[in-house]
Amino acid sequence: MEKNFTYINEHYITEDNICDMTGITKDELNTLIQKQLVPDASYTVNRTIKITSPLNDEFESEITNRYFSKNCIALIEEHKNLNDALQYKAEFKQKFIQDLMKHPDKHFAYHQSSEDDFRDEEKINSIFEEEWEAYCNGIYGICTLHSSVEDIVNKEVIVKKLIQFNSIFSQRTLSPEEKEQLIQLNEEFNAVAASFAPYQRETSSRGKYLDRILEKNNLDHLIKNYSYAKIK
Fold this sequence. Notes:
Elements: H1 2-11, E1 12-14, H2 15-22, H3 26-34, E2 43-52, E3 58-69, H4 72-79, H5 85-102, H6 109-112, H7 115-118, H8 121-136, H9 140-143, H10 149-169, H11 176-190, H12 198-201, H13 205-216
Antiparallel strand pairs: 1-3, 2-3
Helix pairs in contact: 5-10, 10-11, 10-13
């Protein structure tokens, strides 16, 4: 529990702090979330506080804290005057499609879509709506470094590249050339992907598609560890 809380506390910002820093109330923050101008909290931490005394009495209370991606600060500053939510979504979508279309490895993304698929407006709209929902729900605040459009597209591509690499090579020891390829994939993944809270790590994309194959091939030193001193 301590490791998970330390990770979240180090990398995310509480609802109280985000409101203090941006000068808005919790109700105003919730309105921004409801209007999809700011993503929802990425983590919710519930803690039970128990107080006892020599008088043989006790008091117990539950404290709930919501933790947001730190990039929400800039989004709140941009949108706290309740700018048009439809315009923001349209701009987000336009950039998402542009970044996806210009990515040199886009054929890996979204089930190895073909050029014809990328020209299919209905399919692109469906892909975007799924990603938009995940973004608004705070999911990309968990699994990417900046929860940006660029990170969303780049993480989709690198995860699919890792899945393909694992499907080909995970059952045997890698050759020196294949190890070099894995090292490059590791660098691409680390450029956009978060470490994930310790309780999530093993089942996350990092744990399943990168940590395991690095360890299997004696590349443990490349596994991205939790570097801050508080985690034991």
